[in-house]
Amino acid sequence: MGYANSDQGDPAPQAVKILIAGGFGVGKTTLVGAVSEVAPLRTEEYLTHASVGVDDLDGLGGKSTTTVALDFGRITINRQLVLYLFGTPGQERFWFMWNDLVNGAMGAVVLVDTRRLDVSFASIDFFESRSIPFVVAVNCFHGVRDRTQEEIRRALDLDPQVPLVLCDARDRRAARDVLLALVDHLMAGKSRTTPHPVA
Which of 29, 45, 175, 184 lies 20 to 30 Å (CA to CA) from residue 109? Predict the structure, then answer.
C-alpha cells in the first residue's frame, strides 16, 4: 500500500481481526469479496443431494454453493489500521468452527436478510454471550427494504447501543461503510475492545 518504511519513523499499521457472521445464505462471502483489497480466500463447495433436508434453501433462489470453512479478506482503512476479515460458515453443522475463528477478534459484523431474520438469532446470541462488540448489517437484496430499522431492531431484540446499518453486500462502498460503522462502534468504547479468547 506504499507505507513509509520504518527508517522514516512511521509505525506499522494496527492489524484488527473482524468476523463477518450470519445465517446461511445472507451474503457473507459476497461482502468479503466485494470489499477485500486482495483476492479473497474462499472455501466454497457445491451443494449436493447430501444437503437436502439439512440446509434450508427456502428463499435462497438459485444458491448452489456454500462456505464450508471460512472466507478471508483484507482492507486497509487508513495508514494506521488494517482489517483482516474472516467470514464464518452459516450452516449449523459448521458452527463448531466459530469458537476457533473468534479467537483474537476485536468485533464482528452480523449480516442479516429481512426475509429470513430467524437465521440471524444464533449469530447475535454468540457475540452477545461473549461480550464481543458487533454491528448488524441488513443486506438489502436487489434494493428491497421491506421493513423499517425499528421493525428490524424489535424483531432481532437488539440492544439500543448496537448499530444497525442498511447495505448492499455486493457494493464495495456499502460494504466498506459497514466496516467503518463497526470501527466507529469499537472506537466509541461502547463495548470491550480487547481480544476475546474463548475458554
Answer: 45
**Cα angle value 63/25/86 (rounded, 5°):** 125
Exposed/middle/buried for residue 143 (C-beta within 10 Å: 0-12, 13-18, 19+): exposed
Q: Which amino acid is at 59?
A: G
How many secondary structure helices (H) and strands (E) does the chain include?
A: 5, 8
* Location of C-alpha cell 487508513: 78
Report residues of the chain scoring pLDDT below 70: 1-9, 42-69, 90-97, 142-143, 190-199
Cα separation, 147 vs 54, in Å, equals 29
What's the predicted TM-score (pTM) here? 0.76
Residue 139, class by beta-carbon neighbours within 10 Å (0-12 exposed, 13-18 middle, 19+ buried)?
buried
